[in-house]
């Protein structure tokens, strides 16, 4: 009888321990799950904030470009046209010069309208947006820029396009402001698994060993790489003194879920 009671007691204790263990494990699991969900939500919020900040930066860069073009490009053309009109009053044979200048001003305004119209910008693919930048550099004679690209094999996520475009915009801006380059080449290659963009200038370049001392370049590279991490893109900068600077961006497409995988 005592043995039976002892066995029952032991079984009860074991059962209680198992119940407590299961409850504990369930509690730990739920806590970890909640923690992971919280981390995921925080990561999503951080990503959305980064996207919003990037959109603002692109908009600000666009407005700076518009302001510059209106003041220093189109403004100068219209001032020249006014002078030519005054001259043509005394010499009517100079009227064709006025017509040519006004025609050029209209061409510049049409090109500028592409930057102003938000619907037009939204409808552009990544390659088309890059082409617009290259066209602007050449039109304003900032630098001799060329773009080569193959046919797109995958439509990119809108947010990935925004990040990639801003990274390239930063590189272009540094090239024009600091590199003293005369030429810029951009190659956009869509492979089956990834997108690879390579851009290179023929500027003064820099020694990568001095990267830490070149604060503006170091910060710029960190910014571009941090943006790349948001979409799991790899960003590398290569340079040498007297041999220019290049950037390579590699973005692996997000895996598409097929019907077979769902089943």
Automatic annotation (TrEMBL):
Record-linked InterPro entries: HATPase_C_sf, HATPase_dom, His_kinase_dom, Sensor_HK_TwoCompSys, Sig_transdc_His_kin_sub3_dim/P
Transmembrane segments: 6-29
Class in the EC hierarchy, top level: transferase
Domain Histidine kinase per the UniProt entry, residue ranges: 65-255
One family name in Pfam for this protein: HATPase_c
Annotated coiled-coil segments of the chain: none
Catalytic activity: ATP + protein L-histidine = ADP + protein N-phospho-L-histidine
Domain of life, source organism: Bacteria
EC number: 2.7.13.3
GO molecular function: kinase activity
Keywords: ATP-binding, Kinase, Membrane, Nucleotide-binding, Phosphoprotein, Transferase, Transmembrane, Transmembrane helix, Two-component regulatory system
Name of the protein described by the UniProt record: histidine kinase
Source species of the chain: Aquimarina rubra
């Amino acid at each position: 009888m005592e043995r039976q009671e002892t066995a029952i007691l032991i079984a009860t204790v074991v059962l209680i321990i198992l119940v407590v263990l299961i409850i504990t494990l369930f509690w730990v699991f739920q806590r970890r799950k909640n923690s992971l969900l919280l981390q995921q939500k925080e990561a999503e919020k951080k990503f959305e904030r980064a996207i919003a900040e990037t959109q603002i930066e692109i908009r600000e860069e666009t407005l700076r470009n518009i302001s510059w073009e209106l003041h220093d490009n189109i403004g100068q053309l219209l001032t020249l046209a006014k002078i030519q009109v005054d001259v043509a009053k005394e010499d009517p044979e100079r009227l064709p010069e006025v017509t040519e200048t006004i025609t050029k001003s209209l061409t510049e305004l049409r090109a500028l309208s592409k930057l102003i119209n938000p619907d037009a910008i939204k409808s552009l693919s990544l390659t088309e947006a890059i082409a617009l930048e290259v066209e602007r550099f050449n039109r304003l004679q900032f630098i001799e820029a060329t773009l080569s690209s193959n046919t797109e094999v995958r439509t990119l996520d809108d947010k990935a396009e925004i990040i990639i475009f801003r990274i390239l915009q930063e590189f272009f801006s540094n090239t024009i402001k600091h590199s003293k380059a005369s030429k810029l080449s951009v190659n956009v290659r869509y492979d089956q698994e990834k997108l690879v963009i390579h851009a290179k200038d023929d500027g003064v370049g820099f020694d990568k060993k001095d990267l830490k001392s070149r604060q503006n370049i170091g910060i710029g590279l960190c910014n571009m790489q941090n943006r790349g991490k948001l979409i799991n893109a790899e960003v590398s900068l290569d340079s040498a003194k007297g041999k220019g600077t290049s950037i390579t961006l590699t973005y692996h497409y997000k895996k598409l879920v097929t019907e077979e995988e769902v089943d």
